[in-house]
Amino acid sequence: MDTNTLLLLVLVALVFGGILATKFFLKLPAKRFYIGIPAVIIGLIIGALMSLPLQKLPGDFAVWVPVTVTIICVVASLYLFYAKTQGIEKFFADIFKLIRIPKLEDTVKSKEKNKIVLDTSAIIDGRFLDVVRTGFLSGNFLLFKFVLHELQNIADSGENLRREKGKRGLEILNKLKKEKGVKLEVSGEDAEDITEVDAKLVKLAKQKSAMILTTDYNLNKVAKIQGVRVLNINELSEAIKPIIIPGEKMTLKIIQTGKDKTQGVAYLEDGTMIVVERAGKSIGKELSVVITRILQTPAGKMYFAKINGR
Fold this sequence. Notes:
Elements: H1 3-26, H2 30-54, H3 61-83, H4 85-98, H5 104-113, E1 115-118, H6 120-125, H7 127-134, E2 140-144, H8 145-155, H9 160-178, E3 183-187, H10 197-208, E4 211-214, H11 217-225, E5 230-232, H12 233-239, E6 249-253, E7 256-257, E8 264-267, E9 273-277, E10 286-297, E11 300-307
Parallel strand pairs: 1-2, 1-4, 2-3, 4-5, 9-11
Antiparallel strand pairs: 6-10, 7-8, 8-9, 10-11
């Protein structure tokens, strides 16, 4: 058999072998396929190194013996890698941990966790935009189209107050888009099996491991029950209010009467309500008062005071 015939046979064998190998690899699960790649590379390297001295063999042996040895090395390498799949997976996982290469799934989940899903109530409220501008709230904001449609319906309402709230919400979104360092993503995803907007938000946020930004008390509770993290602007506002303790003195302007006509109601600059005993007839006047007690309610803290010196 001459050299040309031998080379032709080797080439035909390689072509058929390649076709069979391709069919074999296509049937493999993704994990095993990726493990096969380094196995083939290592087999080729070992085969090439072992073939160097074999190329000095006389005649046709210098051609087909090295090729045969290389094929055997590749097959042996594949067999070894697939036989030790779990150990090799663990080895590469340890290597990735050592050089701190995150898995693609972990990277995606991390990005999703940084996403903040916008609720209609928070958009209309608008205070979150001021918090964003201070730098205390950052991340990628996610606006679902069904929330945007709800906001547009409010803006098109025939009721003046409702229409103004909708327009305010749309203005807030436009301002948010213009903020530097802020990314607002509009998504067409929908939970079509659910009709209620709040329930849709909770389901999609849970699927994405994202947070919900809201001022809605009921949505806040439902989301937390289902394990979805909530950023409630009302809770933030309550948390950063100045601490007032019983016995503290201050000067307040009485704005209106309380539930009891003998009581007067005053407000601090942050909106905190203080009920002043026996100040019902002092509306419009500034009085020196002393805080007497604090009442914690679901909506926040309510303070009671008496006129200083009485």
